[in-house]
Structures are given as C-alpha cells and as structure tokens.
C-alpha cells in the first residue's frame, strides 16, 4: 500500500496526539502487531512485546510532561518517514535519559524514524539529544 505524505502525516500526527495526551491505549493501538520500539539513549533497549511497550509508555508519561513541540522537518520515503522536532517540557525523573532522579525544564532535539505497515507503525526509533538533556538537568559529562 503506497501512502501519500498526507496519509503518513495523519498516522504520525495521531500517534503524536496520543503521546501528547498520555493516552497509552491510543499509542499501543497505533502500532502494528509485532511492532518494534526503541528510544536512544534509553536503559530499556529495543522493545518488541506489546506489554513491554505499554509499560515503557506508562513510565514515560509519569516521567515527562510535554508543553509543546517545534517541528523542524519531515522527510518521506516508501513506507517510512523521518520526523525532526524540538520537544519542550518538564522532566519529573530523568531515568528515561540515564539521569535518574534529576528533574527540571528541558528543550531538546528529537529525531523519529517510523516504518509503516498499512496505517500502523511497524517500527519507531527515537534519538534524543542526550547532551542537551543532561546539561539542562545539571548532569556533568564524565
């Protein structure tokens, strides 16, 4: 199934709306059966089991409170999309970013790479600007 950029935008924007509203059920429903999810860096690694993905999002939504996103660019390909944004919000617990116990306001660049299967997400890989997060949370590089 060849998707147009507009159709891809609908799929990805709906997924992001579920994330923005802390809707775990919506996020999980936006994923294809057997989907793969990975945030880099993250202590959780690659997640493939739906229950593990659900638990990841439950922790994520407890640890972070988004305040807004600034779109940078979105690139489309056959069956995939690359989405670059700057995320703005508050970290309640930095464990998601290897900064356990740290908290505070942050803004950082995120790069999502989505692979699609029909109208579902088959793979979601997310890269976060760890250096920016750590600097804003007061973590010194070693």
Explain this structure to me?
This protein has helices at residues 5-20, 24-29, 50-63, 130-136; strands at residues 31-40, 64-77, 80-91, 104-117, 120-128. It is of the alpha+beta class. It has one domain (5-136): Nuclear Transport Factor 2, Chain: A, CATH 3.10.450.50. A five-stranded mixed sheet has the order 1-5-4-3-2. β2 (64-77) and β3 (80-91) form a beta hairpin. The longest helix is centred in the N-terminal third of the chain and has 16 residues, at 5-20. The termini are far apart. The model has no long low-confidence stretch (mean pLDDT 95).
Write the layout of secondary structure elements.
Layout: H1 5-20, H2 24-29, E1 31-40, H3 50-63, E2 64-77, E3 80-91, E4 104-117, E5 120-128, H4 130-136
Parallel strand pairs: 1-5
Antiparallel strand pairs: 2-3, 3-4, 4-5
């Amino acid at each position: 199934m060849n998707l147009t950029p507009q159709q891809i935008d609908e799929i990805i924007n709906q997924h992001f709306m579920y994330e923005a509203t802390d809707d775990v059920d919506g996020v999980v429903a936006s994923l294809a059966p057997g989907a793969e999810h990975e945030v880099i860096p993250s202590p959780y690694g690659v997640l493939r089991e739906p229950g593990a993905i659900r638990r990841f999002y439950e922790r994520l939504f407890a640890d972070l409170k988004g305040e807004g996103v600034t779109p940078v660019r979105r690139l489309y390909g056959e069956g995939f999309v690359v989405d670059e944004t700057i995320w703005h919000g508050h970290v309640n617990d930095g464990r998601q970013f290897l900064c356990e116990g740290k908290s505070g306001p942050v803004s950082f660049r995120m790069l999502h790479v989505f692979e699609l299967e029909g109208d579902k997400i088959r793979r979601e890989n997310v890269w976060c600007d760890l250096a920016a997060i750590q600097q804003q949370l007061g973590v010194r590089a070693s």
